[in-house]
Amino acid sequence: MEAARRASHLPAQLTYDYSLFAPGDATAPKVCRDFVRAVLLTLDREPLVLPAALCTSELVTNVHLHSKGSTMLRFQLTPARLRIGVYDESRDPPVTPVAEATACWGRGLALVAEVADAWGVAGDRAGRYAKGVWFELGSESGRTLVLDA
């Protein structure tokens, strides 16, 4: 982005780290998606908005459909990459099913794998949240699955 177009309220080269807690109900995917979109637009990172909102929506929808309890979204933005982690209270690992061509469900993680530069399962807990699934945009690693140790 040209320096002249940069919003005057944004210092250059800062790292941003936000967390959002959403209840375990059907509003969580939209709330988290809108939060990610709002932060990225505020920080003048418009090219990241659509892929980040899509991946966030898929991961938070998975939490809503496959686990009970609330969701914690962690948003980390550096000049080089965006990393979003979605944590839930379930210890069950995510499953990537093979979806039939006519199936209405089962393509969420495959979509995240296609859109994101990298994604994986967090090896650490975040308070009461037992599991996290994350994705990155703008990383140097390419489209890979990474299991954090």
Describe this structure in words.
This protein is of the alpha+beta class. It is built from 3 helices and 6 strands. It has helices at residues 28-42, 49-66, 108-115; strands at residues 16-22, 71-77, 82-88, 118-122, 131-137, 144-147. Strand 2 (71-77) and strand 3 form a beta hairpin. Helix 1 (28-42) runs antiparallel to helix 2. The model is unreliable at 141-147 (pLDDT under 50).
Keywords:
149 residues, 28% helix, alpha+beta, 3 helices
The quaternary state of the protein chains shown equals single chain
Lateral arrangement of strands in the main beta sheet: 1-2-3-5-4-6
Structure summary, number of beta strands: 6
What does the main sheet amount to?
A: 6 strands, mixed
Helicity range? 25-40%
Instruction: Enumerate how many helices there are, as a single number.
Output: 3
Cα end-to-end separation? 36 Å
Q: Uncertain runs with pLDDT below 50, 5 residues or more? A: 141-147
User: How does the overall form come out from the CA principal axes?
Assistant: globular
- Protein structure class: alpha+beta
| Order of H and E elements | EHHEEHEEE
Radius of gyration: 15 Å
Return the average pLDDT rounded to an integer: 82
How much of the sequence lies in strands comes to: 15-25%
Topology:
Blueprint: E1 16-22, H1 28-42, H2 49-66, E2 71-77, E3 82-88, H3 108-115, E4 118-122, E5 131-137, E6 144-147
Parallel strand pairs: 4-6
Antiparallel strand pairs: 1-2, 2-3, 3-5, 4-5
What's the gist of this structure?
By secondary structure, the protein is α+β, with helices and mostly antiparallel strands.
